[in-house]
């Protein structure tokens, strides 16, 4: 049994399984409650024809259940000790030819074709793996993934929720997301410090025909200070300077080409960029920007007035990003781009 003897001198005994010591640096928290494993597999709604991608199978508690239902499981595991353990576990079972085990880092692995992804992932790769899946083509049917509870809450947060953020907007642009199940820390061995939640992700198809770099530029800017009005964000000197620079570059490109510059369409390879979980990188910190905010009494023909004019036209000037819907952001981006204002 994992853990072996009880605690020695107040230190928790090392957590082991079949001689394997679990490594926190690899997010190795094994799901030990069979009822939770069963519930996750059942909520994935698998068909007997499905190819399932499992990320981080570990010792294979979920893998064995997936093999009972799916046609094939492709499991990508970083730790060679876990790969050996899972190979040992599946051999001499009827499923041995239905499991393809790949040893490697899922973030560096070219994803194979799969219908459904089911995974209890290491939480440190939550954001990049979510966007890697969502930029994979052909699209999968759904993903049922265990995340740290707070991350899951941000994924599904709606406008007006305190946790509504750039992650919520970007994920929900690409997929419908549903909270399925809360999972307490004691269902894992060793127990992590945080609670967990299982989320279902269904990719949207087709995606809105927008340039994702432009989209992300706008969303970063808006969520840099999500509780400020958009009018106040677009009055900040560094923001005005950045947008004006983009504007001039775009105009120059148009002049040089002698025609309208082609907009980049909905290219899924650009989706990976949405994974970075920080806010807009306009030079200067938020407090400094407060001081640098323009007073609004400037030259009406200035670039700042042009940008504010777009906000007014759409009725956004007094709105806050924390309360805006996906459609609001899409409409705002279209208005800015129509006025020649760009975010990349
Ligand atoms: C939270 S454990 C889940 C284990 C098992 N699926 C379960 O539910 O009991 C995460 C697993 O992902 C593996 N892992 C960590 N980083 C990984 C990566 N970058 N690529 C693939 N697997 C990874 C760990 O070695 C570990 O086995």
TrEMBL record:
Matches recorded under CDD domains: AdoMet_MTases
Alphabetical keyword list: Methyltransferase, RNA-binding, rRNA processing, S-adenosyl-L-methionine, Transferase
First-level EC class: transferase
Binding positions (S-adenosyl-L-methionine): 29, 31, 56, 77, 105, 120
Superkingdom field: Eukaryota
EC number of the protein: 2.1.1.-
Domain Ribosomal RNA adenine methylase transferase N-terminal: 36-205
SMART domains (alphabetical): rADc (SM00650)
Family according to the record: Belongs to the class I-like SAM-binding methyltransferase superfamily. rRNA adenine N(6)-methyltransferase family.
Entries under PANTHER family matching the protein: DIMETHYLADENOSINE TRANSFERASE, DIMETHYLADENOSINE TRANSFERASE-RELATED
Protein name per UniProt: rRNA adenine N(6)-methyltransferase
Protein source organism: Sphagnum troendelagicum
Lineage: Eukaryota, Viridiplantae, Streptophyta, Embryophyta, Bryophyta
């Amino acid at each position: 049994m994992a853990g072996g003897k009880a605690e020695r001198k107040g230190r928790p005994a090392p957590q082991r399984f079949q001689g394997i010591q679990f490594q926190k640096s690899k997010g190795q928290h094994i799901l030990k409650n069979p009822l939770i494993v069963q519930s996750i597999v059942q909520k994935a709604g698998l068909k007997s024809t499905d190819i399932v991608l499992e990320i981080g199978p570990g010792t294979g508690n979920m893998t064995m259940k997936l093999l009972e239902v799916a046609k094939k499981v492709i499991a990508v595991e970083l730790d060679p000790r876990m790969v050996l353990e899972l190979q040992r576990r599946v051999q001499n079972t009827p499923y041995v030819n239905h499991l393809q085990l790949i040893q490697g880092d899922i973030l560096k692995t070219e994803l194979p074709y799969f219908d459904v992804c089911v995974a209890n992932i290491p939480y440190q790769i939550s954001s990049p793996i979510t966007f890697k899946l969502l930029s994979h083509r052909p699209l999968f049917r759904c993903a049922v993934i265990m995340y740290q509870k707070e991350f899951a809450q941000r994924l599904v947060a709606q406008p007006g929720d305190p946790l509504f953020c750039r992650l919520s907007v970007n994920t929900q642009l690409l997929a419908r997301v549903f909270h399925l199940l809360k999972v307490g820390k004691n269902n894992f061995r060793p127990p992590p410090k945080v609670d967990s939640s299982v989320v279902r992700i269904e990719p949207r198809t087709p995606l809105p025909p927008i340039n994702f770099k432009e989209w992300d530029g706008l969303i970063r800017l808006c969520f840099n200070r999500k509780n400020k009005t958009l009018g106040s964000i677009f009055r900040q000197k560094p923001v005005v300077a950045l947008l004006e620079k983009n504007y001039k570059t775009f105009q120059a490109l148009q002049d040089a080409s002698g025609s309208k510059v082609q907009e980049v369409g909905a290219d899924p390879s650009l989706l990976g960029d949405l994974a970075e979980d920080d806010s807009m990188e306009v030079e200067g910190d938020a407090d400094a920007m407060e001081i640098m905010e323009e007073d609004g009494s400037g030259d009406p023909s200035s670039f700042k007035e042009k940008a504010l004019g777009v906000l007014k036209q759409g009725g956004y000037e007094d709105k806050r990003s924390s309360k805006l819907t996906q459609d609001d952001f899409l409409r705002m981006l279209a208005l800015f781009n129509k006025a020649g204002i760009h975010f990349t």
